[in-house]
Amino acid sequence: MKNSKPSKVRLDKLLANLGYCVRKEVAALLRDGIITHSEGLSLKTDTKVSHDEILFENEPLDPPSGIVILMHKPLGLVCSHDDGEGKLVYDLLPLRWRMRDPKISTIGRLDKETSGLLLLTDDGQLLHRLTSPRHHVAKLYEATLDRPLRGDEAEIFASGTLMLNGEKFPCLPAKLTVIDDTHVTLEITEGRYHQVRRMFAAVGNHVTALHRSSFGDLTLGDLEVGEYRLIDPNKITE
Ligand code: URA
Q1: Are strands 35-37 and 54-56 parallel, antiparallel or unpaired?
Q2: pLDDT tens, residue by residue, 124-182
Q3: If DSSP codes are grouped into helix, strand and coil, which group holds residue 54?
Q4: What is the pLDDT of residues 31-70, one digit of tens each?
Q5: 3 in a structural domain
Q6: Which of 14, 84, 87, 170 is most buried per CB count within 10 Å?
Q7: For residue 52, what are the domain limits?
Q8: In angstroms, what is the span from residue 109 Cα to ligand 1's centroid?
Q9: Are 42 and 82 found together in one domain?
Q10: 127 lines ligand 1 (CB under 6 A)
Q11: How far is the CA of 207 from the centre of ligand 1 (A)?
């Protein structure tokens, strides 16, 4: 997804959309010298500006909309915007980023008890494309199992015939790699609800730990648990 060159927008709208303040606060922030022009030009709340002309407390603004974040999701955090569900993955981002419009959302979800590579974006079209059932990028999971493998799981997962409870269509072929009899990696190209846990449940097992280590060509690299970085949206396999 290419980022088009940012067009000029009203100063108050730009700052409100980036979560710095509400529009009616901009006049006071201009008066107090908190919001300034990088080349010293005078500004009013309705001046049409481009993102890179403006400073907030002498610092360049946060990145404009069209961002993609690669996060190393810790266990115990929820992929939801609802505070009532517990600690959220969004709590790891700067507070201001939670006020942005368009809003930042996760691209698909990882369960509360799944760790690993999570993508987030404020680009609605990218989000829609990557979460569409027609989108089949490979995602690799590392799973720990409660019981030793039976031996036929790789064949069943690869067959493209495995039906999950309550679903109309079988899972697409998935690739199981055995590390030992309770440790595996599983590569799937779909993103059904609790898919990996349900696939193992369908063959009489139970996943006790789950971690996503890659999404398309993206990996966590040296990103520590709870850390995140902005990535080039063009790096995402589509
Ligand atoms: N499959 C699951 O069961 N859980 C996840 O979080 C991701 C894939």
Answers
A1: antiparallel
A2: 999 999 999 888 999 999 999 999 999 999 999 999 999 999 999 999 999 999 999 99
A3: strand
A4: 999 999 999 999 999 999 999 999 999 999 999 999 999 9
A5: no
A6: 14
A7: 9-60
A8: 8
A9: no
A10: no
A11: 10
